[in-house]
Amino acid sequence: MSISLSTRILRSVVLRAATPTLVPAAACRAAVAVFPGPGAQRSFASAAPRWAGKEKDVGGPKVAKDEAIIPLFPLVSLVDTQTNALTGPFAPRDVLRQVDRSTHYLQLVAPDAQPYPIVKLISKAAVFAKAKASKAKASAKPKVVEKEIQLTWAVAPHDLAHKLKKARQVLENGGGHGRVSVVFTASAGSKGKGKVPVETQERLVGLVEQELGLPEGRAKRWKDTERRGQMWAVHLMGVEEGAKEENVKEKGG
What we know:
Layout (H helix, E strand, L loop, with lengths): L4 H11 L9 H10 L41 E4 L6 E5 L1 H6 L6 E7 L7 E6 H17 L4 E8 L4 H17 L4 E8 L12 H14 L7 E10 L2 E8 L2 H12 L1
Parallel strand pairs: 1-4, 5-6
Antiparallel strand pairs: 1-2, 3-4, 6-8, 7-8
Helix pairs in contact: 1-2
């Protein structure tokens, strides 16, 4: 059975107890309490309070690692890595003597804890793995693909069909993260020839929404439709497969 770091530290304190200048009296008392003699050894961890914090809770001006802890606090409580119990108190220097610096470092996690500040042994491999997983998760997060399609009210049917085909590709291939803005404006040559009838504008906007799947739930608005004078802008985004099925069920009753 493996021996925890706190147990190794206590044993080293016992072995060096004859040199009081190297070991604080409180640490010696803690060692004697844990190892009172043959046949009388009791479990320190079973009665000790437990550390309920997390590494992300670490913060504040007194956060320190390794030797930086020594001048701050003469004694600290150590989180047992096997039981999560608080052990000690120990002198930070005694803890560091037992740490394999190539694989772990000592982190101050609760500088204001009572009766002693709390330190914890942190695995460098675990920190690296966590950072790697976080980076991978961030890179795997789908990016929003946006496309703006500009049309005039006088657009030819085949041009409109071609542009809407591209818009559908963005919505369908974006995995629910594609966004399209279809913007209608009056053509430059139409100035002075009167406004495009509202009925024509509404028909074309309705056609765009129909072709891009808004009524069937294959798309949804990511922004309200804009209308300013002769300009209309329809803003739609794709819907993920699960959401599409839900939309169909809702519409079907």
